[in-house]
Amino acid sequence: MQNILSREDSGSTPKELALLQETAKECRKCTLAGTRLNFVFGEGNPSAGLAVIGEAPGAEEDASGRPFVGRSGQLLDKILQAAGFARQEVYICNILKCRPPGNRNPLQDEIKSCMPWLLEQLQIVKPKVILILGKVAANTIFENQLSLGSMRGKVAKWKEYDCFITYHPAALLRNPNWKRGCWEDIQLMMRHYDQLCGTIHAPINEY
Ligand code: URA
After folding, report:
1. CB environment 166-193: b (16+ within 10 A), e (fewer)
2. Rounded CA gap, 60 and 64, in Å?
3. Domain 11-197, CATH 3.40.470.10 — does that match?
4. Ligand 1: which of 37, 39, 68, 110 to mutate, most ligand atoms within 8 Å of CB?
5. How far is ligand 1, taken at its centre, from the CA of residue 192, in Å?
6. Atom of ligand 1 nearest to the CA of 67
7. Which residues sit with their C-beta closer than 6 Å to ligand 1?
8. Fewer Cβ close by (within 10 Å): the C or N end of the chain?
């Protein structure tokens, strides 16, 4: 059972997001357009209070055109669920919309080409809180080279958004010892979200 009270509607429309997706999916601004199977725009509630940002699509996401549907995505769903958020209640996307071959890290020119799509998405969704997954995504958004450890555990302002940074689910799959730290980050984020949005998210249980 979901233990949530809904946030008031932010006024954005699914149509605006759908229109942006229609334009974006034709993108050929970088070489990844030549290797992708699908453009992975993002999905979820167009007026979500919480947006989740990952790094880039992997093989399953490239094949399906949907973000976070592979093993990392299944773990992300569990993390969100443990915090009282249904997947369809939040908005999920990535910094890069196309899969880098072999899942290598995004290159600077790819980030530069792709970032305007993310900024436009966020301008439409207008999330109150953003959860950033992993060091690569956090370093990209904050344009720094700080360690993940030094960025976790606090709210970080980026533009008008209150951001929380935690481990990428792929890292948690490799290092289950980091799950406890991630859960602490998520609980911190939940408390902040509830204060901002006037909702109640009681943690269901650890994922
Ligand atoms: N990893 C990411 O960062 N994003 C996805 O969509 C899938 C895996």
Report:
1. bbbbbbbeeeeebbebbbebbebbbebb
2. 6
3. yes
4. 68
5. 25
6. 6
7. 54-58, 61, 67-68, 70, 72-73, 94
8. N
Position 13 scores a pLDDT of: 79
Q: What does the domain layout of the chain look like in residue ranges?
A: 11-197
**pTM strictly above 0.90:** yes
Query: What separation in Å is there between the alpha carbon of 92 and the centre of ligand 1?
Result: 10
Closest CA relative to residue 158, chosen from 186, 137, 179: 137
- Quote the longest CA-to-CA distance of the chain: 45
Choose the residue to mutate in 61, 105, 168 for probing ligand 1, maximizing ligand atoms within 8 Å of C-beta: 61
Residue 23 above 60 pLDDT?
yes
Q: How far is the CA of 197 from the centre of ligand 1 (A)?
A: 27
pLDDT score of 6 more than 70: no
Q: Give per-residue pLDDT as tens, 80-137.
A: 999 999 999 999 999 999 999 999 999 999 999 999 999 999 999 999 999 999 999 9
